[in-house]
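Technical annex B. To support the medicinal chemistry partners, we prepared a structural model of the target in complex with Phenylacetyl coenzyme A, based solely on the information shown next.
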Amino acid sequence: MTATAPDAGLAEQFERTIARDQRVEPRDWMPEKFRATVIRQIAQHAHSEIIGMQPEGNWITRAPSLRRKAILLAKVQDEAGHGLYLYSACETLGADRTDLTERLITGRQKYSSIFNYPALTFADVGVIGWLVDGAAVCNQVPLCRSSYGPYARAMIRICKEESFHQRQGYELLMTMMSGTAGQRAMVQDAVDRWWWPVLMMFGPPDRESANTAQSMAWKIKRHTNDELRQRFVDMTVPQAEALGVTLPDPDLRWNPQRGAHDFGEVDWDEMKQVVAGNGPCNAERIAQRKAAHDGGAWVREAAAAHAAKKAGRERTVA
Ligand code: FAQ
């Protein structure tokens, strides 16, 4: 592993790598704070993918057709893959996966606030694809240029899949919007419930973001939270118009001077409450994750016993 006490040469080399827009790789020396920041961000991201399976996963058995069920099953499975991929990226920094899971289920590490809201109707499945995956893509495409190599490379594949998810959500909503008045109302209701929580996915406003300045200086993050939130709003308004839904913000309008949309203030108190564990579904999400983890203990034990036996056999042969 890497040295903890740098000589000046190692620290300079790290700074040069960042300044030249090159990637920091697992074996390179890095400041401990850089390592801790990247672990924190990737772990939170991994946990979000895993917990994020729950709101939509609840609809797999209730999907309205076999086609929709197959699509949803594949999407939720993709999220599991993203989580595992990201836990692996964390392990390249010396983090331990069991420890990360412990931190998640004991509330010591965060996951995205968005997954603490319930998916009440099948229109929510479409809106999660369109808006939640849409926000994820907007936030994560710049992370393909993140300065930590394994994270940046993981993001390339993840973004391709998330963008596919976004389009499947939009297609589902298009279908519902060309259906009955009841279906159209269901889509509008889902948009009304998800719009503001989706804007919270980009993090607190820049003036309150504890980590942005350092993460930008280290090029872990490439844009601030507010920049990406603005980009998402600008990208989504024409999509909402094409779909025929109204975004629930009376202050939302094009500002020709800024060349961007003005929009209303997010309820930051609500976000703080949800991040602190007091959202509508926090307890349920963690309880379900913990039950799955406990239920899988025998599989992990069996896999470890098998690996030990196999290694023993290989040693005997050698
Ligand atoms: N929820 O100083 P900042 C997805 C925390 S994946 C909860 O601004 P930073 C795929 C933050 O961690 C969605 N906590 O932090 C999918 C920090 O905590 P700490 C996840 C939040 O890191 C789709 C504190 O607040 N995506 O959707 C939230 O510079 C559909 C101060 O904040 C990623 O993780 C929040 N919304 O910026 C799956 C992308 N916002 O530890 C299933 C990668 C902030 O200092 C279905 N992550 N916090 O106490 C990032 O880009 C960044 O980490 C941000 C936060 C932008 C999320």
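Notes passed to the chemistry partners:
Residues 149-177 form the longest helix (29 residues).
DSSP finds 13 helices and two strands in the chain.
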